[in-house]
Amino acid sequence: KKVYSNYGNTYRFNNKPNGLRHWAEAGSNTAGESGTPSSFDAMADEAIVLIDPDFLFLGPFDLPGTQVTYKQPAAASYGLGDKWLSFNLTKICGIDSPCVTTTKNEVSKHYSVGPPYIIHVRDVPKFSKKWSELVPATYDEYPELYAEMFAYSMAAAHFNLKHERVDGIFTGCMVNFSRGEKALQSSAENFINNFDSSSEKVTQSHNGAQSCFDFKPPPLLHYCQRYPFRLNNGDWRVFAKRRVSHNILSCTSDPLLPWPEGGKADSEPGFERTTDEHWHALAVCAVVRGVAYAKKMGCASTEKH
Q1: How far apart are CA 129 and CA 121, in angstroms?
Q2: Given CA atoms 177, 115, 151, 14 in this order, what sign does their dihedral have?
């Protein structure tokens, strides 16, 4: 059998479709507590929410006005567009696939989406298999970051799984920060003011990520970028996920703190922060307190045993 993909294991984000497929196949072949097959077909009213590893819950996940059912998925609106329509779809999807005849209008309405994806469990097994099969060929033609997201859209089009696009269910990356929140500035500056006291006050867990906000934030934070902001003395601080120690959740690891931002000139007193800076500070607050709260709860459980 000819293997025309040369991506090997170099495309790290192939773990998303393969991970979902593994979960689906393992779950559909596992016996339940009674010893009977635990089939996804029996889960008539359940859906899964697929997120990236750099998502953090800011509150309960909800989709007001949106109902996900069998063959009717939903996902967050993204501006990926219809670039994949220019790919060699006959080779990637197969000459008889509906993916080949998908229109720009259909992409705009249903397939320009990204995580969180919300899919009915009965759709997951066949969809995840097709998604994982399409990624290698997609990456061969488009060896870039978003190959797996385009392959997701192609797999959805292949099965005519027209997604309802949902706005406002996450923030922090790949979407615009929301504007005009009256409590945005005060929420951010409540966190920033802690730096005037001590690092211990900055890293207190409080009640986790949700405690950073004096208003209702979106359900999820996607912290995929760098988040620079200024302290009250004008010094810059930054959080970047790839700089975080791999043992950050160890009970003996140091608390997570944003680092001094190299290459940025510190500001003189009296400066004004931008709206994006306030959001950056809140993103950092959510990650710092989320990690601290996870360690507090997990390590307390360990200590009891």
Answers
A1: 13
A2: positive
Phi, psi of 13 (to 5 degrees): -80, 0
Q: How far, in Å, CA of 117 to CA of 221, rounded?
A: 14
Query: What type of residue is 99?
Result: C
**Four-CA torsion 286, 292, 293, 299, nearest 10 degrees:** 160
Q: Looking at this protein, which amino acid is placed at residue 206? A: H
The full length of the chain comes to: 305
Asked if the peptide bond before residue 116 counts as cis, ω within 30 degrees of 0, the response is: yes
User: If you write DSSP's letter for every residue of 178-224 in order, what string do you get?
Assistant: P---TTHHHHHHHHHHGGGT-HHHHT--TTSGGGG-SS---SEEE--
Q: Which of 57, 276, 50 is nearest to 176 (CA)?
A: 276
Residue pLDDT, tens place only, 128-181: 999 999 999 999 899 999 999 999 999 999 999 999 999 989 988 877 666 556
- Structure tokens of 24? 């689906």
Closest CA to 299 of 220, 221, 205: 205
C-alpha–C-alpha distance, residues 278 and 20, integer Å:
35
Each residue's pLDDT tens digit, 213-271: 988 889 999 998 999 999 998 889 999 998 999 999 999 999 999 998 876 777 776 78
- Token digits for 121? 């469990």
By three-state DSSP, how is residue 47 classified?
strand
